[in-house]
Amino acid sequence: MVGFKVKRSAWAAALMSTVALGTSLPQAAYAQNNGTQQKSFSVAAQSLADALALFGQQAGIQISAHGDLVRGLRSPGVSGTYTNAEALSRLLTGTGLIWRFSGNAVVLERAPQAADGSIQLGPVRVEGASGAAGNGSVYTSDPAATEGTGTYAAQAVTMFKGAKSLREIPQSVSVMTREQMDDQGFARTEDALRHMPGVRLDGFPDTRNINVRGFKAGEQLDGVPMLATGFSMDPAIYDRMELVRGPSGLLTGSGEPGGSVNYVRKRPLDRFAVGANLTGGSWKDLRAEVDVSGPLTGDGALRGRVVGVLHDRDFYYDVAHERRKLVYGILEYDLTSRDTIAVSALGMENVNNRNWGLPRYSDGTLPGRKAFVGSSASSPVETQEYIADYRHDFGNDWKTKITYTRRKVDFVQRSVWGDAAVDLATGLSDANALYARDINTYSGWDANITGPFELFGRSHNITVGYNWSKNYRNYRAYDLSFFEDVPLLDQHNWGSILDGSNPGKRYEITKQSGFYASGNFKLLEPLTLVLGGRWTDYSYKIRQIGSSLWVKQPQTANGKFTPYAGLIAELNRQWSLYGSYASIFVPQSAKDYKGDILDPRTGEQFELGIKGAILADQMNVSLAAYQLRDKNRAITDDDPTHICAENWNLLCSKAAGKIQSRGIEAEISGTPVPGLNISASYTYNHTKYLEDSNPANVGKRLEPFKNPKHLFKLWAQYQPDENVLDGALAKWTFGTGLIGQSGIYTDSGARRYQQAAYVIASAKLGYRFNEHFDAALDVENLFDRKYIDLLGYEGYYNYWGEPRSFRLTLRAKY
Length: 814
Description:
Blueprint: H1 10-15, H2 27-36, E1 38-43, E2 46-47, H3 48-59, E3 63-64, H4 67-70, E4 74-75, E5 78-83, H5 84-91, E6 97-102, E7 105-110, E8 118-121, E9 124-127, E10 133-134, E11 173-177, H6 178-184, H7 189-194, E12 199-204, E13 207-212, E14 215-221, E15 224-225, E16 238-245, H8 249-252, E17 259-265, E18 273-281, E19 285-295, E20 302-314, E21 321-334, E22 339-352, E23 379-395, E24 398-418, E25 429-455, E26 458-486, E27 503-524, E28 527-544, E29 551-552, E30 557-570, E31 575-586, E32 601-614, E33 619-636, E34 653-670, E35 676-691, E36 710-718, E37 732-741, E38 744-748, E39 751-755, E40 758-768, E41 773-780, E42 788-790, E43 799-800, E44 805-813
Parallel strand pairs: 3-7, 14-17
Antiparallel strand pairs: 1-5, 2-4, 6-7, 6-10, 8-9, 11-16, 12-13, 13-14, 14-15, 16-17, 18-19, 18-44, 19-20, 20-21, 21-22, 22-23, 23-24, 24-25, 25-26, 26-27, 27-28, 28-29, 28-30, 30-31, 31-32, 32-33, 33-34, 34-35, 35-36, 36-37, 37-40, 38-39, 40-41, 41-44, 42-43
């Protein structure tokens, strides 16, 4: 056996000259201890050579391998509490290597194509069943999976294709891990998003918008851009949520410059596991959740998973109710040791009462928190989702993945909202009543290949891919009625008005496709240049009801290029500095005075930051400063010499509007001391008009009713071990959280409505009965702070924040 080099540090290279790491034990005891004793591991995603060096130190074991066996390979890392055998298996995920005991050492070998008595499990084969050998797929085939890691510090993300560590990406990236979702007991995707760094939600409770850095953010499903977004989903099906802040044109093509969220589904486990949760809480909140997974064949090549959810609840305000049913299933099959396919299906029904928010009284005050404007008739949303993917490992860390997604959302809306303030003396107001049925069928696919190569004596990585997305919208019904002088706050039965009788208005098709490429090029040992770009085609067309003619709309793009660039300087193994440029675009429909379509809006961002993986990679730390400009916004062309070619009596537009967003973000996540998990972030953002049609807007903040300047978020959970108070608290778990923000306001005529700065606290107390059962009591808004979450208009869109609530959860796990 010969050693392999670890380039990042001379001491590691010397130490690995014989690839001998750790201690010597008699072989029998060595194998037994490595198979049964658990310890804490924290190894970030990195080159396999470096990962093995760090793992050997933490495990206290000896590893041997041929030097050419690991050259050019990368490891997704491992974080959490495992036996040495389990941790090493996770460390080798996707490498095509297996391990076995040989004397006092662990030996790495290339996985055989076939061997008597071998077991195919995940992407490679495992020798025997005694635990004396293993592969890199102990839990799932997802190299960046967070499930079972026991930490909030994600080691890698997949939204940039392949498994990349956070320090390999010269842009602000955060991950909501499965561990944090479970610890905080999130029952809605919106709850998880609300606790992510820099995120502010607006929109309606069941169709929300994600705002980051003053702008909307796009969404992806398993790395495929989605054109129909905003519908509420259940977090029980996700392993993690990955968020990149700032323009994401390289990933998504067109879209708003706020960023992008990638929802990554749970994969089947390679060993049998079952979990069940029962929850009861304030306002008749009842929830049951079950998750079953494991191998379906003796050789483990076929694996499956099923997740089911039933959720039924009232709200803190009158009348409204929500009922959710969800079933998610996925099958995964290893065709060969290098080829894996997976198919999944999801069905969800969500029935609630549409809530457009409260009106104000004529004196500017709001009705109480229990008030509700809307109909007692339900607004159901039915979702069907199908996903298939194929992965192939070419060897030498070259991989390809093809993913197809299809989602159909059938949304029936029965809505009532105010059209004016409520008269304080009479309690009457004007109202709108709407019945609509909106069906969106989204489909898309992504194909990419990624891998390393050697050039000029240095190792580099590239990614090349293509994706395509289409959304077909069928606006099948639309009935809008107007009423004067109605008791808006008291009337909830609107009868047949909300049943709908008019046919739909139109059909819409939106398409987007594009080629993308990116690469991390090692210029010098500590310096990496990141270059990338995407060429995007975008089209949008409409067909009115009763017509067979599709009319192409002016929002188009052909071969629109969005560049991406960054520079990463590794200060040492823990810290790196970076700078980056990112861009995105939005096609426009407005025309100039010549009748030409305006150029697309463009979002451009410059960002500088520092990222760290400290405390033996158990903590992720980041600090970033950015400037983002949204340019070419359509504004009125008031030049009297510019006569509109098509509408001579109207003012036309020009692409001259500009908005600037500047800010600072800081984030920490992970395990600073044994038993303590923490996620904390601070965001400062100031978004203002630089150029606008109305000169009075220049210098003013953009949408101050939903974009606070300051955001602070914290969640910490602590489980003492046996060394604390002689183990008296070893079965208890303590959690606490804070969400704070500065004030927001909105102007309506001569009046200014505002919400002052506030902080909302939460707390948790948990108890573990044994290794299979535990219970937790959660309290949200611990001190019952009364605050306005969203500031709207005089007639609608004003929402109180949720009052204090309690939730008791019982969990079982096998």
